[in-house]
Write a structure and sequence with these properties.
Blueprint: H1 10-54, E1 81-83, E2 90-96, H2 101-119, E3 123-129, H3 142-156, H4 161-170, H5 182-191, H6 197-204, H7 209-221, E4 229-232, E5 235-236, H8 240-244, H9 250-257
Parallel strand pairs: 2-3
Antiparallel strand pairs: 1-3, 2-4, 4-5
Helix pairs in contact: 2-4, 3-7, 5-6
């Protein structure tokens, strides 16, 4: 016969089981949180490591066979359009695709900064306009055609190039749309002063499309993975505030100029 003390209250037994379940749940949550914290820590470390790897100078080497199309004149060794004096205190390098929405945001926030720093002689800006978003223009090949147009207008008169770039981003077609026609590209060029018939013809002929293809390959061969990519004094700018907030690049350039 069992003693009274040996017989447990069923309610107490249920309450104890419930407490045990809560303890197990808390322990499980704790384990998950520890795992998440560890994973986040590893992720941050990897991201920092990646930033260190990508913070080195950007120097693509463009290999282009003349039989594949014309080569734009007056480019930098890295195949970029140079705006400003080559002996300026700070070199800013911008890699962009004219179909890229993030590039548009960067331009809208920092175009005035880049123009002002060039005018003051503080900075020289080198633009690598590449093409990897043709798939986003429904067969229109807008990315390549716009990049070719960039080299056409810059070759004609680099002093108007930044105004042209701003106008292009102001009218950037939506991804997945049909892109601009040649006539639209010509109209934008004319709106900022590129009225020479040779410019219009160069845009229609996609004069530098072959070069753009080789330049794009050279840029990605450096390890670059996205646009916009911006380098100031040889170091990649990875701070989103500097890239995407109004005039965010100004303090970065000024610090490099000291």
């Amino acid at each position: 016969m069992s003693k009274p003390g040996d017989r447990k209250n069923p309610l107490a037994k249920a309450q104890q089981a419930d407490r045990n379940r809560k303890i197990l749940i808390q322990v499980g949550v704790g384990v998950v949180l520890v795992g998440l914290i560890a994973a986040i820590g590893i992720g941050l470390a990897m991201r920092k490591s990646d930033n260190k790897d990508t913070a080195s100078s950007f120097a693509p080497v463009v290999t282009h066979d003349a039989s594949a199309g014309a080569v734009p004149p007056n480019l930098t060794e890295g195949g970029a359009i140079r705006i400003g004096k080559s002996d300026a205190k700070v070199k800013v390098q911008v890699v962009a695709d004219l179909q890229c929405p993030a590039c548009q945001m960067f331009e809208h926030n920092n175009a005035t900064v880049l123009e002002d720093e060039v005018k003051s002689g503080t900075a020289v800006v080198e633009y690598n306009i590449i093409s990897f978003l043709d798939r986003a223009s429904s067969g229109n090949q807008f990315s390549t055609r716009a990049a070719s147009a960039a080299y056409v207008v810059a070759s004609a008169d680099p002093s108007k190039f930044q105004a042209w770039l701003a106008a292009m981003y102001d009218q950037q077609p939506k991804e997945g749309g049909t892109g601009m026609t040649d006539d639209q590209l010509i109209q934008i060029a004319a709106s900022v002063g590129y009225t020479d018939p040779a410019v219009a013809q160069g845009i229609k002929d996609q004069k530098y499309a072959g070069y753009v293809k080789d330049e794009t390959k050279a840029v990605f061969d450096t390890g670059l993975k996205s646009t916009p990519s911006v380098y100031v004094a040889g170091k990649q700018v990875t701070d989103p505030q500097a890239l995407m907030s109004p005039n965010g690049l100004k303090p970065v350039i000024e610090a490099a100029a000291k």
